[in-house]
Amino acid sequence: MGELKDTAKGLGNEVAGNVKQALGKARNDPAQHAEGVAQEKKGELQQGVGKVKGALGDRV
Q1: 19: how many CB neighbours lie within 10 A of its CB?
Q2: 3-state SS string over the chain?
Q3: CA angle 59-7-36, nearest 5°?
Q4: Distances, alpha carbon 37 to alpha carbons 6, 26, 55, in Å
Q5: Statement: residue 45 has pLDDT above 90
Q6: Of 60, 48, 59, which is closest to residue 6 (Cα–Cα)?
Q7: Which pLDDT does position 59 carry in this prediction?
Q8: Considering only CA atoms, which of 44, 45, 46, 24 is closest in space to residue 34?
Q9: Confidence band (pLDDT; 50, 70, 90) for 1?
Q10: Tell me: the pLDDT tens digits for 11-23?
Q11: Is 58's pLDDT higher than 90?
C-alpha cells in the first residue's frame, strides 16, 4: 500500500517542481527555479522509494 502512496506523492512533487522551474525561468527568478529543481529531485526519489517498496512487497 505504501508503494502507491509514495509513487503518487513523488509524481505530484515532480510535476510541482517542473511548474516552479518554468515559472522561475519565465520570471527570471533563480531562487524559484532552484526550488523547483529540488522539488523535482525529491519527487524522483519518492517514486524510487515506491518502486523499491513494490519490489519488496509486504516485507517492508
Answers
A1: 13
A2: CHHHHHHHHHHHHHHHHHHHHHHHHHCCCHHHHHHHHHHHHHHHHHHHHHHHHHHHHHHC
A3: 135
A4: 19, 15, 27
A5: yes
A6: 48
A7: 65
A8: 24
A9: low
A10: 999 999 999 999 9
A11: no
